[in-house]
């Protein structure tokens, strides 16, 4: 059977040209405006605090717009992604914008071996990263291995309740597993989330949900201390097609009674000394 990495990498390689040209990723604004940062990182700023002078690793960085945004806030960034097409595009964008950011192609589970163990002040990961990973406990170990003692993880991610949900005939239902399962969820869609009509040649993806308790426990077991957990009523993509509205600053919210479910969350954890 084809490995999930091969299936998902083919899909994400296909997405790169469309994402580079999309308004969603605003590549042209990065090129034209030296102070421009992504909506995702702008949303995170009140919780991120001052990152100036920090050495940071951005896991599953895709085309690097959030990575470069963190560099523009003063961090020295290394982005890591399994898509060679994405890494090439990210490195070109960093070069064209003279950002303090370099990019490496690797599987995320090998990050500490590839980037170096115990050398980072900050590990950052953004929305839409964890669902592509089958083993959340392994991920927690990688985060801890990358960080120096006292180093910090910052993650904003789709809430697993949101990823469990579907809207059918106007009704919000929980249909997908909330907890991590051994078998993946399989999706087949040529569309991408950036709001264009372009379809990809490799439409099949495999993904996993991870419950909040599973995520937190993976970090605690790796010697991390949770210092913040905040749930949000918005998410930076239209996760439930036709049932969400744009509410500004790149954020989307359920149209009908959005208070019924958390849309995303922010989690921060610190590595023990």
Description:
By secondary structure, the chain is of the alpha/beta class. It has one domain (4-271): Rossmann fold (3-Layer(aba) Sandwich). Helix content is 32%, strand content 28%. The chain has 9 helices and 13 strands. It has helices at 4-21, 27-32, 39-48, 65-72, 84-97, 111-115, 136-146, 160-164, 212-221, and strands spanning 55-59, 76-81, 101-105, 120-125, 147-158, 165-168, 171-174, 185-188, 204-207, 224-232, 244-248, 251-254, 264-271. It has a 7-stranded mixed β-sheet, sandwiched between helices. Strands 6-7 form a two-stranded antiparallel ribbon. α1 (4-21) runs parallel beside α5 (84-97) and α7 crosses α9. It is globular. The N and C termini lie far apart (42 Å). 40% of the residues are buried.
The termini sit apart by: 42 Å
Individual helix count: 9
Largest sheet: 7 strands, mixed
Read across the widest sheet, the strand sequence of neighbours is 3-2-1-4-5-13-10
SSE order and pairing:
Elements: H1 4-21, H2 27-32, H3 39-48, E1 55-59, H4 65-72, E2 76-81, H5 84-97, E3 101-105, H6 111-115, E4 120-125, H7 136-146, E5 147-158, H8 160-164, E6 165-168, E7 171-174, E8 185-188, E9 204-207, H9 212-221, E10 224-232, E11 244-248, E12 251-254, E13 264-271
Parallel strand pairs: 1-2, 1-4, 2-3, 4-5
Antiparallel strand pairs: 5-13, 6-7, 8-9, 10-13, 11-12
Brief overview:
The chain has 273 residues and is of the alpha/beta class.
